[in-house]
Structures are given as structure tokens and as C-alpha cells.
Design brief:
By secondary structure, the chain is an alpha/beta fold. The protein is built from ten helices and 24 strands.
């Protein structure tokens, strides 16, 4: 492969990227050696190595240090990442072989044309940054190729379904069987929560989407909140919500938290949610203000029928650091700087459903950084939410798979749905009703930003001249029902969405419960 001969350029970005990936690779190898072939470790390693190549190639391109022959890498590397994140490992492995071969030719060209101290053997000067890239990109590609081969073998030996570890599949299947044997408790996605068979800690039978199977505090003790104050943060008073969460963190099986009466709780500090916790606001109207709710390194959480307002410059709910199996349902949030939910830093299996959001700038950020390739494990369902008069990020996704279905969008100011960094967004049977901006995505006629996400529109209803530019540069996107076994979501026709969502989204209390039940 020929290399453009041009001015010497610093390679600091390349060196820093290589150092980071070498450190990550060392610990990854150790993890594989100690624990055996672990799927998530292998997946993270492959994507991290490919993302380093992608970033460093972009640096060289911006510096004008590669010629037209190298431009095929511009398409090949994102294509491999697309196939890999779509679980098309065999195709990714085949293209990785081509990438290794191409980089080998590039590296050979460099080493053939230089001697010691970069002396010229061919009469042409090769920039140091190009030499560094060819050497380290080849190492990264070989490593990714090897780990992809290992992952293919691992998948053959360790069949998993719906991303559920083998040890947890029995619990999931039992939960599904119980639901199927109780047809009156059909998880319709919106009204099941108010049926007799879902009363109390039977609510989890209604969970849908990627959070299906969540139990929250159903196996723990009931805790009834009787006080609305939050005066003693370090030593919470018994009966307060903060004390209830402290109890949930210590109690075997967690806790199912309810409220004795309607109340407004003004938090003095962030409220940290423990694993195996349900905060159930049905039957009353509970408003939380002041500070956000935080989920860090936790699992199996249900937040249901709450109003979260005025949390300052923060998100209403912040899910991060590998949290998983979280169901956020029937929440109301408005007039906030950021929005309802962020899901970041390797968190996954989250469903955000039946929520009402208005007058937000940023609404839902799913994946916070282009560099956080760990978010490739993220799976989020955005279902039957009402986005009213907001700016953007409804949601905005990076790296992971986001299923956006049966939502009602009215009057977005910048864009409704967006993505970066190889995100997979499947938009299905949503209703888009523009007032100011017609285009659903951030795309415009001179769009030159990140084209690596895949955004697919399936049977969406576009009103009043709305347009939806699909991002399909690196291939198609399959529905979650095709990609994930046992994934289930009761998606309805767009003809029913507006009435269903406007009657049922957000906190349900008093007459609104009746209106939701009667709404079609």
C-alpha cells in the first residue's frame, strides 16, 4: 500500500491511544487467563481495539497523512464494528482478516522504505505518525481478530438467550411461564399495573422490554414511608424515604417501598438506590424534588409512579457504573435542565416506559461518551413515553441497542432521536408531530458528523410534514425480536398511540387512573 509522503507530524494522540489499549489488553489477557473465555470481556476487548484504530485513522486523515489507498479503512473499520455489534461475528471475523492483511501491507511498506533513524531507502519520507499507526493498528487488528475467533467458539459452547446468563435463565423462564398461565395479567405495557393480579409486589409480572424479568424488592420486606422530611441525611429518620432505602440495602431480599399518603419530599442530598429495591407510588401522588435519584453498580430495581421535579442541573435519575435490570415506569418529569434518565458506563437491560417529559433540553442520554465502548453491552427499551415541547435527546444513544417504540413526540426544537458511536436505534411505530422542526434526527443536507450509528425507522407515523432520515451507511438493522430471544414488547398500531399515551403517560393518580383504564 502506498503512503502519502508529506511533512512530519506529531504522533502524541497515537501514542496515548496505543498506551491505553496496551494496558487494557494486558488486563484483558489476564482476565481471560484466569476466568476463561468470558463473553463480555471478549466483546469489550474487540470493540476497544477496533475503536482505537478508528480514532487514530481519523487523526491521520485530518492531518492529511494517508492517501486514497488507505481510505478503504475508513469504511472497513466501522463496517467491522457494525457487524460485530450486530452479533454477526462470522462476517466481522472475515473482514478482520482483510483488515489485518491490509495493515500488514501498510506496515511492510513502511519498514521496506525506512532504515535506522528513519533514513530514506526509497527517496521518500514517511511521517513518524504513519509508521506508528501502521505498527500499532496491526497489533490491535490481530488482537481483535484472535478474540473474535475465541468469541465465536465461546458462543458455540455457551449458548445464552436474551443476554441472560445461563445461571439466571431458569428464573427468567419461570417468570415467563407464570405470566403465560395468567392471561388476565397480560403485560399490555401500560394498564397491567392496575389489574388485581398485579397488586402489591406482584407488579413485576407487568415488566416488558429489556427489563422483563426484573423483580425489584418482591422477595424482600415491605416498607411504608410515613414521613416526607429529609432533614438527617447521614442518620436517616425511620419512616423517611432515605431510611427506607438504607433498610433496602441491608435487608436480605431488598425492600418493596410504598407510601402511606400523598407527599412531596424535598431531598437535601442525592438519593442512592440499592439493589433489589422497588419504589412503588401507586395509590398516592409522590413528588420528589431537590436532588436526583442515583443507581450505581446496582441491579434489579423498579421505580414506579413517581413525579421527579426541580433537581437542578442534574438528571432526575442517573443509572451508571454497570447497573442492570432497571424498570422506570409511569414517571413525570418537567422543567429540568438535563432530563429524566441517563444510562451510562456499561449499564444495561433498562426499560423506560409510560413517562411524561416536557420542557426539557436534554431528555434521555444513553451512553455519555464516544470513548465509552463498554456501553456496547447497553440495551434499553423506550416505550410509550410522551415527549412534549423538548429540545433533544429523546433519546440520544451511543454504542448500545435502543428500541424506541410507541412513543408520542410533539414539538421538538432540535431533534427527537439521535445517535453516535455505532449506536443501534430501532424506531418502531412512533408518532412524530412537529411544530418547529420537521426532521426527527440531527441530519441536515450538509451533515458531516458521525455516520457510524445505525438508525432504522419501521412503520413510524410522520405528521405535518415530519421527515425521518435513516442512518444505514454500514448496513441494515434488525428488530430486537429478531436479535434477542424471548424479547417481547406489546407494540400497537400508531392509530392507538396518541390516545393511549396522552391518557396514560406519567404519574397516574385519582381520575387519571380511571381515564387511562378507559382510554383506547
Amino acid at each position: 500500500m502506498e503512503i502519502m509522503m508529506c511533512r512530519r507530524a506529531p504522533s502524541r494522540a497515537v501514542v496515548m491511544g496505543v498506551f491505553m489499549i496496551m494496558m487494557m489488553g494486558y488486563f484483558l489477557c489476564e482476565a481471560i487467563k484466569i476466568d476463561g473465555a468470558d463473553e463480555n470481556v471478549l466483546r469489550n476487548g474487540v470493540v476497544a481495539n477496533l475503536h482505537v484504530i478508528e480514532r487514530e485513522l481519523k487523526v491521520l486523515r485530518e492531518e492529511g497523512l494517508v492517501d486514497d489507498h488507505a481510505k478503504r479503512f475508513d469504511h472497513l473499520v466501522p463496517l467491522i464494528i457494525h457487524d460485530f455489534l450486530s452479533s454477526n461475528f462470522e462476517e466481522a471475523e472475515r473482514n478482520l482478516g482483510s483488515l489485518v492483511h491490509g495493515l500488514q501491507s501498510m506496515f511492510s511498506s513502511c519498514t521496506t522504505n525506512i532504515g535506522f533513524n528513519n533514513s530514506l531507502l526509497s527517496g521518500h519520507y514517511i511521517p513518524e505518525a504513519v509508521i506508528d499507526f501502521s505498527m500499532h493498528a496491526l497489533e490491535n487488528a490481530k488482537r481483535a481478530h484472535t478474540w473474535t475467533e475465541q468469541l465465536i467458539q465461546y458462543k458455540l459452547l455457551n449458548k445464552t438467550s436474551f443476554g441472560i446468563p445461563l445461571r439466571d435463565q431458569k428464573l427468567y423462564y419461570n417468570h415467563s411461564l407464570k405470566r403465560n398461565k395468567r392471561p388476565n395479567c397480560y403485560a399490555d405495557g401500560t394498564k397491567c399495573q392496575y389489574k388485581p393480579c398485579a397488586r402489591g409486589n406482584k407488579l413485576p409480572i407487568c415488566a416488558i422490554g429489556f427489563a422483563a424479568g426484573v423483580t425489584g424488592g418482591a422477595r424482600g420486606s415491605y416498607y411504608v414511608v410515613t414521613r416526607s422530611d429529609d432533614d438527617n441525611v447521614k442518620n436517616p429518620i425511620e419512616g423517611t424515604l432515605r431510611h427506607a432505602l438504607e433498610f433496602a440495602g441491608k435487608n436480605k431480599g431488598g425492600a418493596w417501598i410504598t407510601f402511606k399518603y400523598s407527599m412531596t419530599i424535598h431531598l437535601k442530598e442525592k438519593l442512592w438506590i440499592a439493589s433489589h429495591t422497588t419504589i412503588d407510588g401507586r395509590g398516592v401522588k409522590v413528588t420528589i424534588t431537590g436532588k436526583e435519584l442515583v443507581l450505581a453498580r446496582v441491579e434489579n430495581v423498579i421505580l414506579h409512579n413517581l413525579e421527579v421535579l426541580s433537581v437542578g442541573d442534574s438528571d432526575a435519575i442517573h443509572v451508571f457504573d454497570g447497573s442492570k435490570r432497571v424498570w422506570i415506569d409511569h414517571l413525570t418529569s418537567r422543567d429540568a435542565v438535563l432530563g429524566l434518565v441517563t444510562v451510562v458506563q456499561g449499564s444495561t437491560d433498562v426499560t423506560i416506559s409510560n413517562c411524561y417529559l416536557s420542557n426539557h433540553n436534554f431528555n434521555m442520554l444513553l451512553g455519555a461518551s464516544d470513548q465509552d465502548s463498554i456501553d456496547q453491552v447497553m440495551r434499553v427499551t423506550i416505550f410509550r413515553n410522551w415527549f412534549e415541547s423538548s429540545q433533544q435527546r429523546m433519546p440520544h444513544c451511543r454504542w448500545g441497542y435502543c428500541h424506541v417504540a410507541n412513543n408520542y413526540y410533539r414539538d421538538w426544537r432540535y431533534y427527537a432521536i439521535g445517535g453516535r458511536a455505532h449506536a443501534k436505534i430501532f424506531s418502531e411505530r412512533n408518532v412524530f408531530e412537529p411544530v418547529h422542526k420537521q426532521e426527527v434526527t440531527p441530519w441536515h443536507s450538509h451533515f458531516t458528523s458521525d455516520l457510524t450509528p445505525t438508525i432504522k425507522s419501521s412503520k413510524d407515523l410522520l405528521l405535518n410534514g415530519a421527515t425521518f432520515h435513516q442512518f444505514l451507511v454500514y448496513g441494515p438493522l434488525s428488530s430486537p425480536q429478531t436479535l434477542f430471544r424471548h424479547y417481547n414488547l406489546p407494540v400497537v398500531s400508531t392509530k392507538r398511540v396518541v390516545v393511549l399515551v396522552t391518557k396514560c403517560a406519567g404519574v397516574l393518580f385519582g381520575d387519571k387512573v380511571r381515564h387511562c383504564r378507559l382510554g383506547r
